[in-house]
Amino acid sequence: xxxxxxSHRREFLTGxxxxxxxxxxxxxxxxxxDAGVELAAPRGDxxxxxxxRAMACDFQIVLPxxxxxxxxxxALEALDVVDAIEAQLxxxxxxxxxxxxxxxxxxxxxxxxxxxxxxxxxxxxxxEVTQGAFDATAGPLSRVWxxxxxxxxxxxxxxxxxxxxxxxxxxxxxxxERVAVRFDQPGVELNFGSIGKGYALDRASGVLAVAEVxxxxxxxxKSSVLAHGRGPDATDxxxxxxxxxxxxxxxxxxxxxxxxxxxxxxxxxxATQFFRYEGRRYGHIIDPRSGWPSEGVYSVTVVxxxxxxxxxxxxxx
Length: 317
Fold this sequence. Notes:
This protein is of the alpha+beta class. The protein has helices spanning 18-25, 71-89, 97-104, 114-129, 139-144, 157-165, 196-210, 307-316; strands at 37-39, 47-54, 57-64, 110-111, 172-175, 180-183, 216-220, 224-228, 241-246, 254-260, 263-269, 274-277, 280-283, 299-304. A hairpin with a 3-residue loop joins strand 7 and strand 8.
């Protein structure tokens, strides 16, 4: 795994009231332009926010101010882990571990980092649980539809058929003893875009746990969220963090508010990432079983035990 780089961007909000801090954190606009959440303004505490740009969005860690002596150091270390995960998983850099794996695993077994091996194994489990609706090998479909570079297009029948030959996590073979991976079909590739942000939040949460930081909320692009412990406006009846689900059609309004405690949340939708052709709307979320963009659902929000699982299931549904 690439060596984590040191913090390059910090934002301390301890001089603001908690309500002002939260307003600065989430202003109602979506982090990744497609789906997202808001945090309800708290009533009685101060917050500090740490921010890092990664995975084409803003990752933020929000802690109650002055509650943890090691909070700042732990938060910045957690963001360094997010950086390292991006460097490992990205398919946009030829030197990433996943890019190297994609080039070589069609020809031979490739030994990988243990954490990456565990992520691949979990992705295969989710592929099986969702009956193929979540598939980390679906990258070729996004590419032929033009969403890989956000330039939507209708693929030809031949293009779609060729892409589908390379899709299916059943083609990914694992050797747990050697911690190695191989593909049994030419052209197969792994892309963790539909689980990577949630996975990064889970790993960042692990850093905070080691530092005994218990109360926090993390998000990546406001579409992937992980909350732990008590928020600043928590009560005995609602002990967690209040999270509002943004209406994808009218972003000034909310669909509802959840109290999130020790859980992950993800929202996925096609509100802005789509194109129209001959009067028909095509969204960027593609069903890997058919090869065509999913229809009938505008936005999905999932709450799960961890952020990675929430990410994957929000895409699958």
